[in-house]
Amino acid sequence: LLRLDLSHNAALHGVHPRAFRGLPQLRELDLSHGALGALSLEALEALPGLVSLRIGGNPWVCGCAVEPFLKWLRSRVQRCSSDSQTAECRAPPEVAGAPLLSLTDESFQACHLTLTLDDYLFIAFVGFVVSIASVATNFLLGVTANCCHRWSKASEDEEV
């Protein structure tokens, strides 16, 4: 099999990671105008002879999961003709309408943020301080309520 056209398929929401195994000679793959939001990198890596990939017209979800696919696509653009220029992001809202290839490494910085031990210790400390402040506030509110109640009772006794 040299050419596979799965275009204009509204039921095509995903491609199984092993969908193209056994097709090392496949040269042209058309996945355009479907319902793909993402594409498994494993599925594409099974196609060493791929020279044409059409992916435009799909509702791409350009979150963290698309980063490996985008890196693969950029590394193959010179060897593989693609309509990726017409592929646009549909989600998340902050990149909706942006061309898929316009996303940069900076677009995915938040995907690589991790908390350090210092971060966890700071969070634990702040949580402890907030809980102590909450207990102190509740204690003061209780004392204030008790004082107000006693003052009110004393006022009633003086009037009688």
UniProtKB/TrEMBL annotation:
Segments crossing the lipid bilayer: 120-143
Stated name of the protein: LRC55 protein
Domain LRRCT residue range list: 58-112
Compartments (UniProt record): Cell membrane
Pfam family, one: LRR_8
Subcellular location, principal: membrane
Organism: Crypturellus soui
InterPro entries, A to Z: Cys-rich_flank_reg_C (IPR000483), KCNMA1_auxiliary (IPR051432), Leu-rich_rpt (IPR001611), LRR_dom_sf (IPR032675)
Subunit structure, as described in the record: Interacts with KCNMA1.
MF GO annotations: potassium channel activator activity; transmembrane transporter binding; voltage-gated potassium channel activity
Membrane topology: Single-pass membrane protein
Residue ranges the record marks as coiled coil: none
Entry keyword set: Cell membrane, Disulfide bond, Ion channel, Ion transport, Leucine-rich repeat, Membrane, Signal, Transmembrane, Transmembrane helix, Transport
Listed GO CC annotations: voltage-gated potassium channel complex
Record SMART domains: LRRCT
